[in-house]
Specification:
Its main location: membrane. It is built from eleven helices and 66 strands. By secondary structure, it is α/β, with parallel strands linked by helices.
Length: about 950
Amino acid sequence: GNYSRSSQSSDRYFITLMYERKKEMSLPSFSVLCVLFLIFQYSHIRFSSSSAVPQCHPDERSALLQFRSSFSINTPDSLQHLCSSFASISPWNESSDCCMWSEVMCDRVTGYVIGLNLFCSGLQGTISANSSLFLLRHLQFLSLSGNDFRGSSILPEFGQFKNMTELYLSAANFSGYVPLEISHLSKLVSLQLIEFNEQNIKINVSAATFQALARNLTNLRELQLSNIDMSSLSSISFMNMSSSLTSLYLVSTKLRAELSENVFRLPRLQELELDANEELTGLFPNSNWSSALRVLDLSYTGFSIDLPHLLKNARSLSDLSLSYCNFVGSHPTILSNLTPQIVSLNLAGNNFSGQIPWPTLNLEGAISLDFSFNNFTGQLPDVNSASRQSFSLFNTSKYLLDRVPSSLTTLRLSHNFLTGKIPSWIYEMPYLQELDLGNNFFTGNVEIEKLSNLKELSTLDLSSNNLSLSFNNSVNYNFDNLWALRLSSCNLSEFPHFFKSSKDLGTLDLSRNQIQGNVPKWLWEVGQNSLFELNLSHNFLTYIEPLPWKELSILDLSFNLFSGPLPISSSPGLQVLLGSKNQFGGQIPTSFCNMSSLQVLDLSYNNLSGKVPQCLGNFSEYLTVLDLRRNRLHGTLPTTYAKGNSLRSLNLNENQLEGSLPRSLVHCRSLEVLDLGNNLLNDTFPNWLESLPELRVLVLRSNKFRGAIGNPKINFSFPQLRIMDLSYNEFNGVLPTKYFENFKAMMNAERVKMEYMGERYYQDSVMVTMKGLKIELVKIQTILITIDLSSNNFTGKIPEVIGKLKSLKGLNFSHNMLNGTIPHTLGNLTNLEWLDLSSNELAGMIPSQLTDLPWIAFLNLSQNHLVGPIPHGKQFNTFSNDSFNDNLDLCGFPLSKMCNEDTDEQNSPSSTLEQKHDSDEANGFTWKVVVLGYGCGFVFGISMGYFTFFSNGKASWILKWL
């Protein structure tokens, strides 16, 4: 056969796609592209090198034709970026010699089919145990990667290929457990099983299967597994790995074991990549390391990294990635022990601080340095280019920089605290391809003309500094190789023209500038066949024509002034669409139903009207976020939520939706946020949602829900619920005591790591009534625990079990018909910050235990039938009359009504207060002023309580007052 589907253009597509997406994608996804590209190249060489062979056997030709006919030919949207440069399967027919088919390799002597390369052949369908594929008994090479087998199992029959040496099953939509029978392939040299979808892992490898692979596959040299579940493995699983292994690639596999030291001692091991396994731990061996180890990636793992010890023993290391790791020792000591043979070094995300110790880095021949996402400070040293020799020599008053290698192709320093001007030597690095200086505090002017001298430059990031760009829009600058351009927050007031010649542009970020008016038409000529990310958010743009880019994957138009219909025509590979905070109108286009790769769809805060298309329930198995809040949508909710979907956040708040909740929502097993507040929904309490294992936020406020909540139908109902808002409905009956008993996440949230809910391209937010104020939290902390059942028709007593929800920060039962006394167990809610029980029929005395609440900042017990003295002390001394008004039989501070048992009016708090009031009033100071001051302090307290700093140290508000 002659395998001829590759070309120089497809090679360039893969190279450029991989190069840039390393930063845009997660580590595993990028590695998928790298490995699949190498496999494709290797198979291309092998399949194209075949000389004349005998004609194929008729039975094998029939088997191939039968296998081909069992599938439809169509590349799904989810594989477009991987497969767009490859044709589908070539014509096969009965009259031709199957050994001449481009996907087939035959033995030169016997004519048997020994190789079948169906990489990216567009196969869609399932594989069954009686598939004719398993009749090709002589197969040695099989690649089914880049197809869609629709969740088929990896069948035990794959273990029948006794002569198999290379098996590639990546990005093929398999599911289930890897069969033990794979370990029967005793001649196997290379096994690759890598999946793209990190959100919905479908493939598992059991401990027994992995140990059988390690034990039986003694010829195995390359084992590459990614985005599959290997959480059942233990340290023992790695004890008997094949001594033939040269490449071990276990990326994002949920490993939780302690890695055996023996792995580092495998004699032929050259590449070890274990990144994105945060619970994988281990220690380095003291001796007998593999002398062949060249590539090591332990990023995002739980390893304790002793870098001097590592470099002392792994003397052949040239490519070292240790981002987001746990280092042993001080930062200067760590960085002073680097060895000159390292050509690629990634130390991102390790909280290193101080100045970058350029003099001691000892990396004369480095081609890639990544120190991003640390806390480095100071300036980059600058010298005159005349003083620089073969390796750049710097002399400054603060630093003597011995070596900045002129061989550098990649320099990443983003997300630090670096200051000063960008030094002139940056413009003179002859091989520089990637320059990332974003999210620092650099100042001064950047001359685009000087940057255009970097002929190899493919990635430029100057975002979020204090820089000004100097360019002339009438000059044609040469940026022909530019693949990624990020100029967010660069003080731009117009579209810069200098990248007009960048025909292969893949990423363009001009967000957070002051660009006004229409998106220029010349932009449509940029990156026509390559642009996959466009970010124009946070500008003042008013018009954009329908988008022409068929490769577009990520589009952010949010926070602009766009109006009219959505500019989406045909973008089948679109994965992220952000269009919130605009004035888009009209109906949601039906073309969305064809976007089967969409993962995040946020069109909130617009003027969209019409009905929510039914297809939005099942059009994409990858959809994790659907946010259509604050539009003018009407009709009913989609009823088509399919089993196995990936939906994590559904927000349709503030529309005009009606009808009942679709029962198919119970299929959304990954759902964390369900916000349907402020609509016209009419239903009973959806207790059938209680089985959702991940649901954290449930907001049904301001609808027409009715009836009693009732009791749970299962044990451990709503196990992860943290925010429950059922306010402003027509619920009645008693409060749901049995549900409160099941809210386990509200009992021990202090054990939960403080994080914000959301993902890379979308941040969950929620509207809450907090301390008497209506507030939108634009970030949701995982430790925020609130219950709001206000403004309903609940009756009966407040259950004492509420006191077990010790992580509660807010509790609102106001405006109901609750009676009985306030349970003293509320004094156990030591994290409580606000409590509102107003406008009920509560009687009895205020429990003195409430004074033990250390964080209580807002209390409203007004409009009840409470009696007796108001407890005093601690936080209770800060509350005003408003907290206790309209309780006729309450007395004591801060009310003016004295308690009968007060025998010494002169010494009572209220009497003393009255005396002070009279005195202060004469001086122009009244309690109205005090309350006003308290209100200002209260607002400030809330604001500061939810004030956060991002990793670059720049502050950002996370709440919005309404």
